[in-house]
Amino acid sequence: MxxxxxxxxxxxxxxxSDHLRTTDELSEVEMLMPVLHEVLAxxxxxxxxxxxxxxxxxxxxxxxxxxxxxxxxxxxxxxxISESHVETDGAWALYEAWVKLRTGEADTALVYSYGKSSPxxxxxxxxxxxxxxYVAPLWPDSVALAALQAQALIxxxxxxxxxxxxxxxxxxxxxxxxxxxxxxxxxxQGEYAVRPLRTGDCPPVGDGAAAVVLATGNRARELCExxxxxxxxxxxxxxxxxxxxxxxxxxxTRLAAERAGLFERPVDTAELHAPFTSQEVVLRRALxxxxxxxxxxxxxxxxxxxxxxxxxxxxxxxAARIHRGASxxxxxxxxxxxxxxxxxxxxLEGEARA
Amino acid sequence: xxxxxxxxxxxGQTKHVAARRDVSIAGLVREAAQAALLDAELTWAxxxxxxxxxxxxxxEGVMMPELxxxxxxxxxxxxxxxxxxxxxxxxxTALVAANLVAARVHGTVLTLAFEKQSExxxxxxxxxPVPFQQPLLAGAGGFFAPHVRxxxxxxGAPDTVGSLVAYKxxxxxxxxxxxxxxxxxxxxxxxxxxxxxxxxxxxSETCPSSDGACAMILTDRAGAARAPRPPAWMHGGAMRxxxxxFAGKDFVSPQAGKDCxxxxxxxxxxxxxxxxxxxxxMYVPFSWYEPMWLENLGFAEEGEGWKLTESGVTELxxxxxxxxxxxxxxxxxxxxxxxxxxxxxxxxxxxxxGEHQVDGARRALGHAYGGGSQFFAMWLVGAExxxx
Lengths: 354, 388
Prior knowledge:
A: alpha/beta, Peroxisomal Thiolase, Chain A, domain 1, 2 domains, 10-stranded mixed β-sheet, 33% helix, B: alpha/beta, 9-stranded mixed β-sheet, Thiolase-like (chain A)
């Protein structure tokens, strides 16, 4: 393997919607379109200029099969485009696009994702992604499963309720300066949702969309003053059965980070997709983040957690900090599945500033 | 630096049937994956990454089933990617897996697509009401029948062509032990006497609903050198998408299909597909799509596709055999159907297609489409490694 012989890929633009509890008046396409226009305007590219397009979304959130086809109509795929879709968070769509660019078959890619949780009960919907024969029929919901993980961490002495409350407080305070966040500024820890998690430890339920433009080599430098180079990106999955996993650890995150080259040099920023406060505890350890690393300056998933977009937003937020010179080397993380089953890690860098 | 050549060294599929009540979804996919590993003489430990595809999650009633399938597919500790591009997904999934090898991200990749339609009800899955969008109340046949009629009007094709395709594909399926429909007593008269469902599409000119899975092992040049059986080499692969609904769309011969084929031929250095390609596995869920796609893929001039079919060119012993395996008309686990086309093309150039082998097949095309004829995925595989 000689990774440096493959085209180098950078995030050159990022856009996201305002994340809202409900968007009854908007279809998914209407929610997505302004974001697509934003990243295209930022790069000056038209749909027909893009070499490859990839999206992430979920039919179960939309409540219908082939829901992504309508978004494609919105993209304006004419003349026909080279395009694909992953049925998961847009971070994995970005990974597919990164692979495509690494083959040299395209030099730009548009990646987008979106999800509306408001039309249904997302806690109920997510139970449908569990083992369909033995677990899903019991309807264990996502908050209950996260609470199991939180309790395991407390029992192992890795954290306690005040420490979790501090994660929540720090995240929402950081989000005060994020105009897109759903929860901004101080939020009460509230009552127990499922012990030991209080409402403050849980992400808001909401709707949102995000889009990223990737480009290779000199194309990236033309499109962006300070491209956020993807130095490494990798993702790993763990067993599905919670009973066979150590919920206090995230070996898949650690392995993905190692393969992405995270541990080669320190980072200054981390955007972690940790919808529950307790999951930040797990991820910080797996990623070996030093105390001086700025974690989730955007507020993270505790401030806005649009399903299928929240992971892509972590990569976008990390890249945007590099674009504006607030970071030189950042790590972005995305997760999928119950209790951090599947994890993606990307290491982003800006070139040295003159 | 040029891309790494991609080779297919293992192919596995299940026996496709209406309902596999003896296995779970995990059991079904594991069967196909193990068959592919056996073909490649590799173990689970040799696989670097897993790429899974299937059509809508509502077809089994499991949201993002790849999470639950991680264990069954030996993916724990590995990268696992899930692709979903409607009916073309089996083809797209194989292409995403191939890109991982071509970009030198991984050396050996397991790719798999499946559908276990008996777990739920596909018609229900496709008919969930959506506000402010037109309902698809008549199922897939109702959507495609008007486009078949448009083709007939446009080309003057006689109304017997559809039944010829169905009769051919069902006879081909008798030679394929994995095919779902094995109609031992099939005759042309029986096809033509079957009930009219969506005029002009008769019952025997439609695909069945199947449970089944298909898997392939894709690897790099070094992996191919170690393979115990001849590999199939990828010479070209492409995806194209266009909008479902817009005024300029040609539902009879979509531009995305033409562009996709042209891209694949360009990569493979093919100037005259009719002469230079030996066998074709194309996605024909309703029999009339054979002549329609023959034109769309450049095997016949516009308006001439039905003549190739009528003259027997696309028969198993014809000059350009199409759907040697029996095709989607004989086997349709929707999410896997595209990958089966890709895998059957690979089997042909490896010389491992058994009873439905085309003698001397050196180059074969695998084709898939989906949505409202808007998503296309194709690859061209050859017995020889690509040059250059």
